[in-house]
Amino acid sequence: MKNTLGNNMTVTIFGESHGPFIGCVLDGLAPGLKIDEAFINHQLDMRRPSGKISTARVEADQYQIVSGAFNGYTTGTALTIIIPNSVQHSQDYSKMATLARPGHADYTAECKYHGFQDYRGGGHFSGRITAALVAAAGIVIPALAKKGIVIGSHVKTCAGVPDADFGKTEAELKAQIAKLNDAPFAVIGDGVEAAMKAKIEEAAADRDSVGGILETAIVGLPAGLGEPWFDSLESMLSHALFSVPAVKGVQFGNAFEKVNCRGSEYNDPLRMDGNRVVTTTNNNGGINGGITNGMPVLFSCAVKPTPSIYKEQKTIDFNKYENADLAIKGRHDPAIIHRARVVIDSVTALVLYDVLAGRYGTDWFTAE
User: I want to staple 156 with a disulfide (CB 3.0 to 4.6 A). Which of 31, 196, 215, 319 is the partner?
Assistant: First the structure.
């Protein structure tokens, strides 16, 4: 089972939705990174459900760092984070242990693990595990910020409701990212949050769910990061992004919107801005040939509607190999996109730290 991501800094996740703990191990961090517990808690708050548009399962996420830290700084050895699970309703799943929930990994887990998997709440497949990734990135994101690298995402669309676009200049992007990273519901345009929430609540009232698109911007990356083939920056990021539950598509720049344009429209013209090379457009999302060109890196993730819905659905019993009907019980999100954005930011940060450590070494993050 592959639970480890990265080359120069690795992230290993562990745990199940209804087990005693979830957590992760970070190996390859630089010694001397400051651990900002208030920031880690803030990031976990951005992921935590709240209100009518989220699940009623609200975990305290009282994480513990049990190795790799001393006197508020990383030691450079393996850092382990554990987060207790304290609000499980395992009985909600006992009556449907052999019924495959449509859109979930129940059937594929049965095919791979032959009945030994923990089915409660999705087990190891659960989005609950992403809390560990968010906590881990809470250590990495400030280290990137000290090097002038910032990451932010907004809900570009949800249930068909569009948000305003990211700004075109780095100054605009930085201002938007700062605002988004403090917003529980990350949108740019005025009145958009209310419109999206109304659509989510409408789906919840109909015992259904909705999805949408998250758009992410990275500002401050130096040119020259990534490899030309199998470890292109797009490949590295996509590897991690597709590991986030519910992500079903990734595009860089304007890949899908402008793919039918001519090359003369799609290409990004190069110009000099003082001593710096820039492009006048950014259709390629800041990456050429798998390598950063110094412009903001832009990508989008398609987040599918939450598969757990309360409508009765057609399925199968994979023990009896019989058709069945299923009405899911329990506590579920009518939309997860607003909670997923901090997860996307987090896995992005973990990948960037890994790539930067490979190019410059881990001590680069603490060098003045």
Answer: 215
